[in-house]
Amino acid sequence: MLRKTTLIIIALIFFIIYSFTLKAGPEFRLIYVVQDGDTLSEIAQSFGISLKELLKGNNLKENTTIKVGQELLIPKIEKEEKKHIWNYTFYDNQSRLPELKLDLGNVYSVRIDPGMKLPDVSKIPKDKIITYHVAKGDTLYDLARSFNTSIGVIMALNDLDKSTIRIGDKLKLPVNNLTPRQILARTVTDEDVELLARIIYAEARGEPFIGQVAVGAVVINRVLSSYFPNTFRGVIYQKNQFSAVNDGQINLTPNRTEYRAAREAFNGTDPTMGSLYYYNPKIAKNQWWFKQRRVMVTIGDHVFTK
Fold first, then answer.
1. Separation between Cα atoms, residue 43 and residue 36, nearest integer Å
2. Which fold has domain 1-116?
């Protein structure tokens, strides 16, 4: 049975207070940590929602097995007659009220763990941990999903005793559960986006949009390959690799389409199927070298090869 433990969730006290006094108070995502003996139906009943709503909110099937320590989103369901109120009692702890500094209009994750246990993170290698700068709109719930981990792991890595974060905070985030491409997408800098947009504009303006994404994908594939430099600047400015660098077209200002193509490539779209090279058969010199490689696809005027 789900423990009927009195939970001290200070953040929700602020939510209740602000909801009566201000128009746009902080909003919260409620995250429940599965305890020993819990069942999905009991968890749903305890929070005043249906099993169907709980399953849908977490993309689970009815026969899914839950594990101790697993984190479940408790969806906030809007009722026709009144706004939904989670079926839990929250008490004020005056000694900790000054510690919470919440921004109106922002969304926060509240982690409910009656067992009050955080996972062991000592086995996560140091080279699999990055430092992330919290931006507007970030919550621990969203970051945990994006980095394929849990709120508890993030809290443990950062010695957090509450699950609220603020813009500008620096968080240690694990990347041990991500592929190299996923890690790259989550650690890309503004300079990387700018450089990729510039090389796409210089090399592929006039090509169909998917062809522009493809050029961006080739650059990303090179960054991830052990045969090329491991930075965007290193790949793009590698000697005699891109004609647009040799003739100075890399310095031209891209338009919005190229930035969109760059972001599409960063998000994982690769129409080239992992290609590392491309050439235009109409104008390329030394085509014999390209023809020795495996041809993957032809998009617009470019042939992409591995």
1. 12
2. Membrane-bound Lytic Murein Transglycosylase D; Chain A (3.10.350)
> Whose CA is closest to 156, among 129, 183, 185, 138?
129
Q: Report the predicted TM-score, pTM, of the whole model to 2 decimal places.
A: 0.66
d(CA 169, CA 166): 6
The CATH T-level fold of domain 118-178 is Membrane-bound Lytic Murein Transglycosylase D; Chain A (3.10.350)
204 closest CA partner among 217, 193, 213, 195? 213
Nearest CA to 41 out of 63, 69, 71 is that of: 63
- Alpha carbons 154 and 170: distance in angstroms, whole number: 12
Alpha helices in the chain (DSSP H): 10-21, 40-46, 51-57, 140-146, 151-157, 180-187, 190-204, 209-224, 232-236, 243-246, 256-266, 287-291
pLDDT, tens digit, 9 for 90 and up, residues 18-50: 444 444 567 778 899 999 889 999 999 888 889
Quote the CA–CA distance of 27 and 109 in Å, as a whole number: 9
The tens digit of pLDDT for each residue in 239-287 reads 989 999 999 999 999 999 999 999 999 999 999 999 999 999 888 777 7
**Whether pLDDT at 15 is above 50:** no
**Nearest by Cα to 137 from 170, 163, 171, 103:** 103
For domain 188-305, give the CATH superfamily: Cell wall hydrolase SleB, domain 1 (1.10.10.2520)
Who's near 289: CB < 8 A, 6+ residues apart?
none
118-178 against 188-305: fold identical = no
DSSP 31: E
